[in-house]
Amino acid sequence: FRRIVMASRPRGPVTAENFRMETVDMRPLDDGEVLVRNHYLSLDPYMRGRMSSAKSYAASQQLDHTMIGGTVGQVVASRNDYFKVGEFVGGMLGWAEMGVSDGVLLRKLDTTRIPLSAYLGVVGMPGMAAWYGFNQILEAAAGDTVVVSAASGAVGSVVGQLARLRGCRVVGIAGGAEKCEYVVKQLGFDACVDHKAGNLEADLAAATPEGVDAIFENVGGACLDAALARTNAYARVALCGLIAGFDGKELPIKHSRLLLLNRLTLRGFIVTEHMEFWQQGLQELAALVASHQIKYRETVAEGLAAAPQAFMGLLQGHNFGKQLVKLIS
Ligand code: NDP
Question: Where does the secretion signal sit in this chain (predicted)?
């Protein structure tokens, strides 16, 4: 089967030369092992952090090893009593057509109510990041104004819809008119500001006439500055991601003075450190997706060879909703 390894570490933006496709032989399964055919790979911004050797919250990706990543697929052979051939499972089998698991990080998935691919997005790690940051950090009440950056994306789209369900006024920030229109018309945000239109601070000010009580930050830089400029006293910031700085750019906070003046609380978090919430969170998200109260969108690249290009696109905002790679048709 084929897999993609990291061939070199990026200096600045990721390039195609940082990856290499290889064909590997299948080895016989040991006792307790499961062979999975991957149907979808998840592409996520954190992978950029792992490709660098700099300190990051995720351990760094090793050279010449399969690119790490979440996967969903089907069991095709099993020497593990718990997993049967034909069952759908989620795991961390990386950028590869097949993978062998010892079963420890493998999870059975129920595809009767939720499509398989959604377990990599809205009912998976990104959905949980949204759920955790919104419910455990933002303390948003009905009537509060909540700002969400990367609003059309895997995490941001869920945050905004959870906030709408709670009765908040929700204002997104996204790149381009098409994404903004989707965020308002399809996802039900109250407003969405285009960070590419050149007027971010003024446009966000116009969209938040009563100031901002809570910020769910996915981007950093100009997006965070514009939201901080609008904060009310005691506003909360859930710092989920700083994708604008992923290529090594520092992202100084222009309005740091407001952290004090407005007595803000800012908390960064890593969702995989809070596994005790996952069962509850994923159950709630699954129920909301099954009842169509939470909508989601996916951008699907076809075939393993398309993964590097799709990943580079994700870091540049070319994805529209959760970025996946589909491996079987
Ligand atoms: P998305 O689906 O939101 O895709 C990334 C989006 O980021 C792009 O589509 C683009 O949207 C936006 N973006 C990229 N570069 C820039 C830039 N320079 N300025 C403004 N926007 C930019 O990805 P996810 O939902 O998977 O992740 C969102 C964030 O959440 C990331 O920062 C990620 O690292 C973080 N995260 C953190 C977790 C945690 O545990 N702390 C867990 C999961 C994700 P647009 O076109 O609208 O600008």
Answer: none
Residue from 42, 155, 162, 312 to probe ligand 1 pocket by mutation (most atoms less than 8 Å from CB):
155
Residue nearest to atom 44 of ligand 1 (CA): 126
95 and 135: one domain?
A: no
Cβ-contact 2, 304 below 8 angstroms: yes
- Reported as a pLDDT band with limits 50, 70 and 90, residue 59 is confident
Give φ, ψ of 66 to 5 degrees.
-55, 130
The answer to whether the CB of 49 is under 6 A from ligand 1 is: no
Same domain, 231 and 316: no
Strand pairing category for 34-42 and 98-101: antiparallel
Cα gap 76→328, rounded to integer Å: 14
Clarify whether residues 86 and 135 are in a common domain: no
In this predicted structure, the answer to whether residue 58 has a pLDDT above a threshold of 80 is no
**Strand ranges of the sheet holding 265-268, from the earlier edge strand across to the other edge:** 191-194, 169-174, 145-149, 212-217, 231-239, 265-268
Q: What is the mean pLDDT of the chain?
A: 96
- Which tokens sit at 29? 């399964």
CA of 218 to the centre of ligand 1 (A): 5
- Residue 312 pLDDT greater than 90, yes or no: yes
Q: Is the pLDDT of residue 310 over 90?
A: yes
Query: Does 162 share its domain with 243?
Result: yes
What's 236's domain CATH number? Answer: 3.40.50.720
- Do 227 and 315 have their domain in common? no
Tell me, using a 6 A CB cutoff, whether residue 109 lines ligand 1. no
**Strand extents, DSSP E, 242-319:** 265-268, 298-302
Provide the residue range defining the domain that includes 200: 125-272
In the chain, how many domains are there?
Answer: 2
Residue 133 CB less than 6 A away from ligand 1: no
**What DSSP assignment string belongs to 200-226?**
HHHHHHHH-TT-EEEEEESS-THHHHH
What is the CA 58 to chain-centroid distance, rounded? 14
Ligand 1 pocket mutation pick from 180, 218, 223 by most atoms within 8 angstroms of CB: 218
